[in-house]
Design goal:
5-stranded mixed beta sheet; mainly beta; 3-stranded antiparallel beta sheet; Immunoglobulin-like; 2 helices
Length: about 140
């Protein structure tokens, strides 16, 4: 794969049970995600003490998904980006944050017919975190 974004999209798609590059894993949870690259509540790796402040909190209301990371925002340490990702690895929504933002909160409208499975939160110091979006 040519870049980090493609790698992360493929990792999420494989975990969701999609076929990527000939690999297919029938799993709808985050346990198949690469450890040490992507962190989850179940697999926080070296960041076990960071779960509450880095794992995205997801709420769904109809076709609207709200993603919030309960993390402070400062020049030295902040949430860089949120995304929502479909089962096939398609990025359905993304929002970039700046250290000057008051909070890391984003709202996305899901396109008709799409089911998002994952929300991601990327911290400039503590890597990428993924949560399953409730159905």
């Amino acid at each position: 794969m040519s870049n980090r974004r493609d790698f992360l999209k493929a990792s999420l798609a494989v975990a969701a049970g999609a076929s990527v590059g000939g690999i297919s894993i029938a799993s709808a949870d985050t346990s198949s995600l690469p450890k040490g690259v992507i962190y989850t509540k179940e697999n926080p790796g070296k960041w076990a003490k960071k779960v509450k402040s880095h794992l995205p909190v997801v709420t769904v209301d109809g076709g609207r998904v709200t993603v919030e990371t309960k993390h402070g925002m400062s020049e030295k340490h902040f949430i860089v980006r949120h995304t929502i990702v479909a089962a096939d690895g398609e990025v359905l929504g993304e929002k970039t944050f700046w250290p000057s933002d008051e909070e890391a909160k984003s709202v996305f409208e899901l396109p008709a017919g799409k089911k998002a499975l994952y929300a991601t939160s990327f911290c400039n110091k503590h890597d990428m975190w993924v949560a399953t979006i409730p159905a």
